[in-house]
Automatic annotation (TrEMBL):
It comes from Davidia involucrata (Dove tree). GO terms for molecular function: zinc ion binding. Residues 1-18 have a biased composition (Low complexity). The keyword Metal-binding applies. Keywords: Metal-binding, Zinc, Zinc-finger. Coiled coil: none annotated. Residues 54-82 form the C2H2-type domain. InterPro entries: Znf_C2H2_type. Residues 1-41 are annotated as: Disordered. Transmembrane segments: none annotated. This is C2H2-type domain-containing protein. The keyword Zinc applies.
């Protein structure tokens, strides 16, 4: 079934982003400037050469304060390309291409980048999960899907399409830019921004792709605008189905099915999920592609 397939895909993604599964991998030759597959954000305890020296394990640059090292890693080593032979590259590719209709042009993947979120962003995500779990537990499991909320915050795998302007991930480039109109780099650096109508996440990459107007690349060609797909872990929490009647300030719901959804349809089959809190969405991969 589609639900079990999605669950399997979600488990596969979790195994890729978990630091435990990558640290033990043997070292392989990687493109110049790329980051090792192990997630630096997981290694929060650094052992300085002296009390005031903190070297970057990726490039060797020296910092005198741990927060400066963390800031350096968040910008200069924000992503790393999954090369052929990397665990998970094929899984991400399959998940990305699933759901594209036969009549549509097949997407051409240029590169798949793993996002190395800062400890701050990871902590924010996990703290939000715990708040959703506690809220569901206080309600005593009387609402639908409360069991999932209590277990893991009702975590789902979703897609979000965004635009970017830089050479993100090209030729082993692991850094992100600071251009104010480069949406992808902004999301990687600081997470998603709050939105009045919620942050839109889609069940398939095809739906996320068509959510951005087809002509946007042509219209902003002078800015070298391109699109990329973000594969995200989302804490959906308690989901409301009536967009018009859900109060975003009401703690009863954490997210809502988009306007096209039917109240009687399973969430896993819905196209759009609007999440109210930016802390609920953790981007894990960036797929740079063309159609």
């Amino acid at each position: 079934s589609s639900t079990s397939a999605r669950s399997s895909q979600h488990s596969s993604i979790l195994s890729i982003v978990s630091p435990d599964t990558t640290i033990s991998d043997p070292l392989r030759k990687r493109p110049a400037g790329s980051r090792p597959e192990s997630d630096f954000s997981a290694n929060q305890h650094f052992f300085p050469l002296r009390n005031d020296i903190y070297p970057c394990p990726a490039c060797g640059e020296i910092f005198q304060k741990p927060n400066l090292l963390e800031q350096h890693q968040a910008i200069k080593h924000a992503v790393s390309e999954l090369i052929d032979g990397d665990s998970g590259k094929n899984i991400v590719r399959i998940i990305f291409k699933t759901g594209w209709p036969d009549k549509a042009k097949s997407p051409n993947i240029l590169r798949i980048l793993k996002i190395h979120s800062s400890p701050k962003i990871l902590t924010r995500f996990e703290e939000y999960r715990e708040s959703v779990k506690l809220k569901a537990a206080r309600n005593g499991g009387v609402w639908r899907r409360d069991e999932r909320c209590i277990a893991d915050g009702n975590e789902l795998l979703r897609f979000h399409c965004a635009t970017f302007l830089c050479d993100l991930g090209r030729n082993g480039n692991s850094s992100i830019c600071n251009h104010q109109y480069c949406s992808v780099c902004g999301i990687i650096r600081c997470g998603f921004s709050p939105k009045m109508d919620g942050i839109s996440t889609l069940s398939t990459s095809w739906r996320a792709h068509v959510a951005i107007p087809e002509e946007i690349e042509e219209e902003f060609k002078f800015m070298h605008v391109r699109r990329a797909m973000l594969v995200c872990r989302v804490i959906a929490g308690r989901v409301g189905c009536d967009h018009e009647n859900v109060d975003k300030e009401d703690p009863g719901f954490d997210s809502v099915v988009g306007r096209g959804g039917e109240a009687h349809t399973r969430l896993d089959e819905e196209d759009e999920l609007l999440v109210f809190s930016p802390r609920a969405v953790l981007p894990c991969f960036v797929i740079v592609y063309t159609v």
